[in-house]
Amino acid sequence: MLSTLRRAESENLRGRWACEQAEKEQLEREIAKRQARIRELDIAMRVTRGELAMLAPVNMLPDDVMIDILHVAYLHDFPHCRADDGLYNTHSPIAFSQVCRRWRRLALGMPALWTCIHVTPQQTKGYPEMARLYITRSRNRALSISFICYSEPIELIPAFDVSGEKFAKTVWPRYRASWEVLLAHTNRWKHCALYSTFGFIASELADNLRGRILPRLEYFRHQLWGEETTGYPGIRFFAPNLKQVDLNNIYSGLPETDAFRRLRDLQLSVCGDVSEILIVLQHCAPSLERLSLREMDLYHDDATLVQPSIHLPRLRSVILHDFHEINVSATFISRVFRGATGLEELIVHDTGLNRDYPSHARFSFPQSISTLRYGATEPEWRIIRENLPAPCPELEELEFFSGAEEILHDVLDLYQSSTIVAWPRLRTLILEPYDDMDEDTLLRFIEYRVLVGRPLHTVKLSAETLQRLSSETLAKLSTHPTRLVSHAEDARSPPWDEPWDYGRNIPAYFPWNGSLEWWDQF
């Protein structure tokens, strides 16, 4: 019986051993398959890794390539900068510097990324610390300052009206804190653009700069939205390298003459005595290359009329737009034209001239101009029709904002039977969309140019004007070498969330905290 029990136990153990052996062999086979699969995946991963390396992901780009990318992405082109407020969700390099240690090292190693400082309405009360951060990280580089001090744009909320007292108590302290930080580093300013809504702020900003030395400053702009700056102290700082000045909607207080010694670009929209502007032009005459006068409200005394003429040897571009005083406008324009003997580009629009302008202020367009862009109200056409049809031997491009039909008709009457060719080098004629041009006059002028052997190269019309041309006119024009092309309609104002309004050449509005409500602005 004992032997029988031992035999049964032995068979039981052998059975268990056989099962375990079979299970082991099965696992070994599965392990072999898994190992083979692992080897296959290793090979596939090596191939994929090689393909990824060929794609050059950002974390594998060399430093010199990353630096070039940062230059493109974050360097600013003043004054058309992105409205950078230094916050994390904007175009500020701060966001880039917080991605990883390597990117932070690159950002901190590029002081040029931190040289453009914007103080804008959407910033928080802690922005002075952010401004200090930019100043520190930019090291000793020249700074570009954009100080946009306002809260609500009137064009967005016409009924919105905030008193200066309320603005001074609620919003202005936030701006003043940042302004004081910037004032401590005026020796590094290269560009400075100031925008404000209230006259007392404009005056305070200008007064804070009184007597300061700004050795690097090349560009200065001060624009006021809203009320007049009757007490504006003007530019009372010393900037030996100042090349561009733009004073917009500033009433009185033109810069001192020392600020204009090397000026190349002068843009004014002011109310003041003509004698002041003439003195300014006299001091910057040797270096001035571009002069822009817009929305000028001028007056003069009797002594202004006997002042000597101004010689502007380097002046190449003049923009005259919206003059409010007829007699003064004519007198002033005639002086500028007589002095600008080398003028190449002239843009004239709504100068306030009419049939009552004084005889002593008669003028002719400079014969040196190669580009003329003109728009006039109906009373001005007589003056232009007296001056424009002159031969103007250097004129190559002519653009009309209005009055084209009358002026071209006069040219045909004066020169069609003459041996003298009006505008012999004219190649491009541009007619604005809102100029109601008679197609018969246009066709006659193009045919006249062909007849005298001086065909126009290009005539630019709006799409609407091109559609109005009859098939007969188009058929006749097709036989001439002149190209008819369509130019874009008036550029639409950018949406309110764009950083720069190119139509008005000012920073576009950015609401603070993404809200247009007054109580969210401070």
TrEMBL record:
Checking InterPro entries in the record gives: F-box-like_dom_sf, LRR_dom_sf
Coiled-coil regions listed in the entry: 10-44
Note the Gene3D superfamilies from the entry: 1.20.1280.50, Ribonuclease Inhibitor
Q: Tell me which domain of life the UniProt entry assigns to the organism this sequence originates from.
A: Eukaryota
Keywords of the record, alphabetical order, are:
Coiled coil
From the Swiss-Prot or TrEMBL record, give the protein name.
Answer: F-box protein
Q: Please give the organism.
A: Phanerochaete sordida
